[in-house]
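DM from R.C. (forwarded with permission)

"hey, sorry to bug you on a friday — could you get me a structure for this? deadline for the figure draft is monday and I only need the backbone to look sensible"
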Amino acid sequence: MEQNQKKQDDMPMGLGFGLAMNDEAMNHFSKLSDMEKKQVIEAARTVQSKKEMNHLIQDIAKM
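My reply, with the result:
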């Protein structure tokens, strides 16, 4: 795997922390396909605030 690809696949810290703090969200995220996980990671990269990240984590928990 190229270094650029690995960088693109890295999970944003806020997403990783949010999933670690929410068992339901972590459970749902772990069941996503690789493509769905990449979409969530890309969405997390556009988050501008802690409040927005909390909303994203809640949305994952509801999946």
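R.C.: lifesaver. The helical segments are 3-9, 13-21, 23-30, 34-45, 50-62.
me: no worries. The CA atoms of residues 43 and 56 lie 8 Å apart.
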